[in-house]
Each structure stands twice: as C-alpha cells, then as structure tokens.
Description:
- The chain is α/β, with parallel strands linked by helices.
- It contains nine helices and seven strands; from the N terminus they run αβααβααβββαβαβαα.
- It has helices at 6-9, 17-20, 25-30, 49-58, 60-67, 113-129, 150-158, 174-177, 183-197; strands at 14-15, 36-37, 71-82, 85-95, 100-110, 140-147, 164-170.
- Strands 1, 2, 3, 4, 5, 6 and 7 form a seven-stranded mixed sheet that branches.
- The longest helix has 17 residues, at 113-129.
- The termini are far apart.
Amino acid sequence: MLSSQLHLRQGAALSNFDTTVPEGSDLLREITKDPYVLDFTRLGSDHAERDLEDALVEHVVRFLQELGVGFAFVGRQYPLQVGGQEFRMDLLFYHLRLHRYVVVELKTVPAQPAHLGQLGFYTAVVDDKVRDPSRDDATLGILIAAGRDSEVVQYSLRGSTQPMAVSTYETLPPEMRALLPTDADLARVTHEVLDARG
C-alpha cells in the first residue's frame, strides 16, 4: 500500500457525490481511487478497451483488491434490456458494506462528456431494473479512463443527478513492459523444457 501510494490515491477521483448523495458523500468518496494501479494486467500504454476488460476479468481477484474492501463481482458485459434494445455494461459490482450496485465503465481514451452520459444511463437503468429499492441504496457509477481534463469532468458531473466518479488508471510503463518476456519467448522456453524432458 505504501509503494502504490494508496494514501494519496484513496478518495482522489473527481465526483459529484456532494450534490447527488450529500448524506454519504464522504463514505462514497473513500471507495474511489485515482489512479487505479492496474500494472498486474501487464498491458502497455497501447491497448484496446476489450483488452483492458479481458485483463481485469482474468485477474478479477487482483482487480477486486485494487478496488478495495467490500466489492463483489457481479458480471461483465452485463446485459440491460431497455425498450426494444439490449445494452451491455463493461463491469457490474455490488458493494457489500454500502449496499449499492457499482457500474464500472472502462475507456482507453481520456474521459469525455459522452462517456459520463453513457455511464449515467447505465446507472439509472440498474437503479430501476436491477436494484431492490427496499434494501439497496442508489447505484454508483465509476468511469475509469486513460486520462481526464478536470474542468471538462467537473462540468459533465455537475449536470448529472446520478452519483458518479471519474478516475484514471495506470498500466506498466513502457520501460517495464520491454523487460517482460513475450508470448513467443514463453512458448519457446516451454518447448525447450518439454524437449529436455524427453
């Protein structure tokens, strides 16, 4: 936790919690981080959104540890039927201590107002169609993007009535990525070991 500077990252995501959930904004803020350190995915700086999602699901235990205590994984590409259309959210979690669903949208580009519109839509649909209002509090949305312009994000959050936060993520720096063996290297070593065994 010290090496990842958790004390500086905890609660650092930009959010609209003060206006959308004033009675619990401090607690909600504490479950967010900025940036999320996703170096365990072994992704470099150039990757597709699906690659990021695949890597997080493949390492779901490590991702849950990075999210923090209380998060439970519900599903990926979670389907939502609205009208005659089906929409799919990147990741859906449930926070056991806060009794809230948490929608996580991933973007491999800097956060844009349209991304927050999409996240707000998913959050509203989960509120109406998935959550049990007798025991679950309002759904929370977290956009984890490759970057953000704080002013753009603040304006985008101000116009929303859904509780949302915007954070960034970090993967392996290029110099560290270059030190890792490639898939071909690992396959070659495996074949050499198997050939040596006879």
